[in-house]
């Protein structure tokens, strides 16, 4: 059995992406539990960035066109983390996380239907319908009120925007790591960290921010290890496995986040939220695996 796994890259990729899915849900829950989420995220990125400094001396430099991929990825990742933090500050993890993770496949499916020459398969079209139903159910309101801030659950709008950035960086990084390998993994993580810290310093003075980072050092340390380690595993899984299948398996993090939110954060897991979570996961898997 061990030999079979060792000789099968797809099996390795599957195991790794499931570990990464747990890591992503876990670090999101840790940030949700922080009293100062931005400070905790700054600590997270300081830890992650410093951890990749030694690796920069062990990999070849990126070619010029590779830096264009890194620039695009960093811009999207900074936007993603800012939106994710805002969503977590506004809503429950078990609400905003499934919507954020489910919006990306939904948008990709709809864009394929309207703008790409390849029509959606029957399974993909069904996945879109199931995913839309799940997001509406999770938002807790009628579809016509989805964009009415006074009638939907808190954090729904920003969670949907977060989902757009997740889809964007997954596509950028998934393609780039196929071309540049481990060098891309090292450099994109190393470059991203200071840019996120700079984005926080634009809003808050250095001294108060660093004081807040010190108060949140435990969460910053844990999330730095879990988030950067988890995303490194994700990119390696993208490198050795099929991009579409691996991206689909990442959606299992929705289930892990819902479970963590209910068990650890004490968020109420109503029948509506449970059903909506299962619908979002099912729809996302149908869209990606049937492609």
Automatic annotation (TrEMBL):
It comes from the Bacteria. The keyword DNA-binding does not apply. The keyword Transmembrane applies. Signal peptide: none annotated. Residues 12-139, 155-287 form the EamA domain. The chain crosses the membrane at residues 12-31, 38-60, 66-84, 96-116, 122-142, 154-172, 184-202, 222-241, 247-265. Pfam families: EamA (PF00892). GO terms for cellular component: membrane. Keywords: Membrane, Transmembrane, Transmembrane helix. PANTHER family: ACYL-MALONYL CONDENSING ENZYME-RELATED (PTHR22911), INTEGRAL MEMBRANE PROTEIN (PTHR22911:SF106). This is DMT family transporter. It comes from Gimibacter soli. The lineage of its organism: Bacteria, Pseudomonadati, Pseudomonadota, Alphaproteobacteria, Kordiimonadales.
């Amino acid at each position: 059995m061990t030999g079979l796994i060792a000789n099968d890259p797809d099996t390795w990729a599957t195991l790794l992406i499931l570990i990464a899915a747990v890591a992503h849900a876990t670090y999101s829950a840790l940030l949700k539990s922080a009293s100062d989420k931005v400070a905790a995220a700054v600590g997270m990125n300081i830890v992650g960035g410093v951890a990749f400094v030694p690796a920069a001396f062990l990999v070849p430099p990126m070619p010029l066109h590779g830096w264009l991929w890194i620039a695009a990825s960093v811009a999207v990742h900074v936007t993603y983390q800012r939106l994710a933090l805002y969503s977590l500050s506004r809503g429950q993890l078990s609400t905003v996380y499934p919507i954020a993770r489910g919006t990306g496949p939904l948008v990709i499916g709809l864009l394929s239907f309207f703008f790409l020459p390849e029509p959606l398969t029957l399974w993909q079209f069904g996945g879109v319908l199931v995913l839309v139903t799940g997001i509406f159910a999770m938002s807790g309101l009628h579809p016509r009120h989805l964009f009415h801030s006074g009638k939907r659950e808190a954090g729904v709008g920003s969670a949907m925007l977060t989902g757009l950035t997740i889809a964007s960086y997954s596509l950028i990084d998934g393609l780039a790591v196929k071309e540049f390998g481990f060098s891309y993994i090292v450099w994109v993580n190393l470059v991203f960290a200071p840019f996120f810290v700079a984005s926080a310093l634009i809003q808050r003075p250095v001294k108060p921010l660093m004081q807040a980072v010190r108060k949140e050092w435990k969460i910053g340390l844990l999330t730095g290890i879990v988030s950067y380690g988890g995303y490194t595993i994700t990119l390696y899984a993208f490198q050795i496995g099929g991009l579409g299948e691996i991206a689909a398996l990442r959606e299992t993090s929705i289930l892990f986040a819902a479970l963590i939110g209910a068990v650890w954060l004490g968020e109420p897991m109503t029948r509506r939220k449970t059903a909506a979570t299962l619908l979002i996961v099912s729809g996302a898997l149908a869209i990606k695996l049937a492609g």
